[in-house]
Design goal:
By secondary structure, the chain is mainly α. It has three domains: 1-60; 61-87 and 131-144, no CATH class; 90-122, no CATH class. The chain is built from seven helices and four strands, in the order αααααββββαα. The strands form two sheets. The chain has a two-stranded antiparallel ribbon. A two-stranded antiparallel ribbon has the order 2-3. The protein is flat, with a radius of gyration of 22 Å. 6% of the residues are buried.
Length: 144
């Protein structure tokens, strides 16, 4: 795709990026291929997988599907809840503490590393009453 875009750049993301890189004298074929791969995997694959898992979740929990059918205002939370429930990407964040702190009874000293798992947070019983079960999709007003 990138090779084709380099020979026939259109008025799209890659066409404009190629045109700009040519103007600046910085055309980077490998970098453009890497960007295309990133957009494919981070954008398309995760979205396609999440849609599939969302359908599986609703078919596995028909009571949740019935709630959404009865009140389409619940749709925004019906989109958010599968992201928590399935957590198809677990972005583990690492941070360095700038000050002494305590998290969940654990002392962390300044300059110590902390690793945070989104997957674990999404299943935290202190936040979600029954994290192994899908939460009822609230309406947008209820969630606010």
């Amino acid at each position: 795709m990138i090779t084709r875009k380099e020979s026939e750049p259109g008025d799209d993301l890659f066409g404009r990026k190629i045109a700009r890189q040519r103007r600046e004298g910085t055309l980077d074929h490998a970098g453009l291929v890497s960007l295309a791969f990133l957009l494919l995997t981070a954008g398309h694959e995760t979205t396609a997988n999440m849609i599939s898992l969302g359908v599986v979740g609703l078919l596995s929990h028909p009571e949740q599907l019935a709630l959404i059918k009865a009140d389409p205002g619940r749709t925004p939370m019906a989109v958010e809840e599968p992201l928590r429930y399935f957590s198809i990407t677990d972005t583990v964040s690492s941070r360095l503490a700038t000050d002494d702190a305590e998290i969940a009874g654990v002392s962390i000293k300044a300059d110590e590393g902390v690793i945070v798992s989104g997957l674990s947070a999404n299943w935290e019983p202190a936040v979600f009453e029954n994290p192994a079960e899908p939460n009822e999709p609230s309406t947008h007003e209820e969630a606010s």
